[in-house]
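Last lecture ended with a question: if I hand you only a sequence, what can you say about the shape of the protein? Today we answer it with a concrete record. The protein is Probable membrane transporter protein. Below, first the input exactly as provided, then the predicted structure, then a couple of comments.
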Amino acid sequence: MEPLTLVLLVGGAVAAGWVDAVIGGGGLILIPLILASFPHLAPATALGTNKVAGVMGTSAAAVTMLRRIRPNPYVVGSYLPIALLAAGAGAGCASLLSAEVMRPVIIVLMLAVGVFVACRPSFGAQEAQRVVTPRRIVLAGIAVAVVGFYDGIFGPGTGMFLIMAFTVVFSQSFVESAVMAKLINVSTNLGALVVFAAGGHVWLTLGLALAVANMVGAYLGARTVLGGGARLVRYAVLTVVVVMSTYLIFQG
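The predicted structure:
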């Protein structure tokens, strides 16, 4: 590997970790870098290798955030196996569903999220009070299953969709939802990684090297979220909507 290629990949992994910790979408940075650096690499291997970095990075962000904010452990714990299995199922189906089918649906959903957040300034505010009932727990569980499957089969914006789902269902702040999203995202990344690894689609040495850099970026991103609060996450949601929608439109 050329030194410049290594520097670009490590720098991209740090940036991807920071973006993932703040709102999600780091894969849109790291996966194209991996494919550009190794043009003959199979796309599935790039996705699997990215998941190695993603598991470590989201874990680092989750641990950092948990030192300040503690979500209900029983609620989150019940969602972890759902996320793991759903993401694994999505990864298993990744070759069956064309990205061309998913792209317009995701663009519409992202734009809907952006309009909703922009028109509701108080949504996800820091002073929001969490409301947990059996019905809401079930609704959030369904959302985790859907988003987890999506993470395995396609992926962009998983963190943002989880944050929005938890904020809507539990009427809580963006920051509380971000902590829950990180924990669930660890499980979705792990579920997809197991399936990619079983299929031989993981370049482990590269993945571990990028994981170290990704963890650094994720730690910095988690500290950014805790310092910036709900307002930062709100702006991050709107930024991700614009950037990812533009990316997916021009990619098509």
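Comments.
1. Residues 3-251 form one domain.
2. The chain has a mean pLDDT of 87.
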